[in-house]
Amino acid sequence: MALRKKEKQSAFDVIVVGGGMTGICAAIAAARHGAKTALVQDRPVLGGNASSEIRMHICGASSNMMKPNAEETGILREILLENRRVNDYYSFSVWDRVLHSAVMDTENLTVFLNTAMYDADTQGKRITAIHCYQLTTEIHWTLTAPVFCDCTGNGTLGFMAGAPFRLGSEGKAEYHEPHAPEQPNLERMGNTLLFKAVDRGEPVEFVPPRDAYKFTEHQLRYRKHADLRSPDGQADEQEADEVLNNLDEATKSLVTDSYCVDYGYWWIELTGEKADIIEEYEDIRDELIKCVYGVWDHIKNGGDHGAANYDLQWVGMLPGVRESRRMEGEYMLTECDLIDNRVFEDAVAYGGWESDNHVAHGLLDFDKMPSTIFAFKGLYTIPYRSYVAKDMDNLFISGRSMGASKLAMASSRVMGTCAVGGQAVGTAAALCKKYGCTPSQVKEHITELQQMLLKDDCYIPGFRNEDPLDLARQAEVSASSEKQAATNVINGVSRTVGESENCWQSCGMAEGGEWLKLSWKAPQEISQVRLTFDPNLNHCIKLTMSSVRIAEQGRGVPGELVRDYDVLLKRNGETVACRQIRGNYQRHNIVDFDKTQCDEVELRVLGTNGFEDARVYEVRAYA
């Protein structure tokens, strides 16, 4: 009997494979800039390691808020603020919906969920098509595009297309990185299953599965697993403080989540035994299940860990992956670039997370701390070239498999950094359509790409708004009151950097609101005003299962955000157009008008989400 096979084809300008935070931001960015885009995701939900299937919170350049004003903006901040508006109780089901809506509501974007790519067609160094199977519909899809973005994490598309890649660590001689091993090796960071427990207010018994592993206190001595907030635990708060005081600040931040028993544990990690950790994924998962339940058995039944009332509520079944293949980029980011806070001429993204290099055998390295932190001060930029696959004509690489050495990847792998890289890649892919060029040829338009990213509320350290089409840059600026100078809104930097606030801040909130005006001597034709408000980038808004991290955050959107405002276009003192915005909760606002001749744009702030002053980082105006 002949095999019946449902087959369909579809063509796009850009195809993004992988629906984690990197792929989401890449696909949205490409589509918003006019490219007909496909997003291919092999799971039923979006978000990758941040999804409800894995539930890792999104970390980034701020290193758990230790580096001031370093939180990521752009599409990622937009999504996080939307989640904060609707998800006060940290529901991962609500988060799934937020991510789903973010892509489904984007024009020019087609989403293929439950769709696994299993092959790629190439001609020379060019990918011509990918072949996918959608499990739920039983459809075999052939998808074509002139440009592809590999956001799979594993570098799966690049691997299938024959692009060069790396495994393990480079030796010291290659990049002269201070913490590289003397010789190359195949050591890698492992996969983790997380769990969530709840306090039932009464003793809860735990009966372990028959195949759960047994762990001793001695084996787990370097992995904190008692509720150190509880006087009933094996270690009290004084001991916890003593332990923390012996750690550097970066490691303190990393282990903080281990000082409670309701959320755990990133260190329940296994690396497998073969050269290819991807091939071992299923076996590692099976072993991780035994480890998770074994660790919980030890916490509940292996002595007093302050967990008598805790009940295991959720255990993941899909391990989160830290490291597998790294694709070779036209430039390989290195640990030296991180330490030097290097600002590249072709910078399009940035990072700041420490080089967080986990032990080679994960949980089984009982005699070692689970991670070695190589900390550095400040932020580094990531060059565009690290997102362009080496020896390929039409392939972007982004996420944790971008072009980076092992030690650089140990920093750039965190999801916040991956997400801003994804937005950079998606924006560049749209430029490929605009100019009919390859990813490598976008380097000829790097200034345009950088300015597009800044306009879309991304941050690139060392760069500022120099958009020649922004009419606000030639305007005179005045305000009703100034605690911070009104002229800051056109200085080109849309966040606090060091001692420079870079925002207008009013002196309180007068009855009738506070105003900011941009004026020109001659009338200008205005059709769009872009506003960047303050979401307090030192205030964490991540979705998390960690009670420690939740306690740091509170509810609702940050109070500094402007909530209610009017934008008025005026000519000779008379209002010729007005837009009234109420209930805003986003940092980046785009206010559109019919083309209007005016000599003044007035922003009138009527209220915030709780802060006493109006704070505005940037105002742009476009014809």
Question: Helices and strands in order, then pairings?
Answer:
Layout: E1 6-11, E2 14-17, H1 21-32, E3 37-40, H2 74-86, H3 92-104, E4 109-112, E5 115-123, E6 126-134, E7 139-144, E8 147-150, H4 156-161, E9 165-166, H5 172-175, E10 191-192, E11 195-199, H6 237-245, H7 249-255, E12 263-264, E13 269-270, H8 281-301, E14 310-315, E15 320-321, E16 326-327, H9 335-339, E17 347-351, E18 355-358, E19 371-374, E20 380-383, E21 395-397, H10 406-412, H11 415-435, H12 446-455, E22 476-479, E23 504-505, E24 514-533, H13 547-551, E25 562-571, E26 574-581, E27 588-608, E28 615-622
Parallel strand pairs: 1-7, 2-3, 2-8, 3-4, 8-21
Antiparallel strand pairs: 5-6, 6-7, 9-16, 10-13, 10-15, 11-12, 11-14, 17-20, 18-19, 22-24, 23-28, 24-27, 24-28, 25-26, 25-27
Helix pairs in contact: 1-11, 2-3, 11-12
Keywords:
FAD/NAD(P)-binding domain; alpha+beta; single chain; five-stranded parallel beta sheet; 623 residues; Jelly Rolls; 21% helix; 13 helices; seven-stranded antiparallel beta sheet
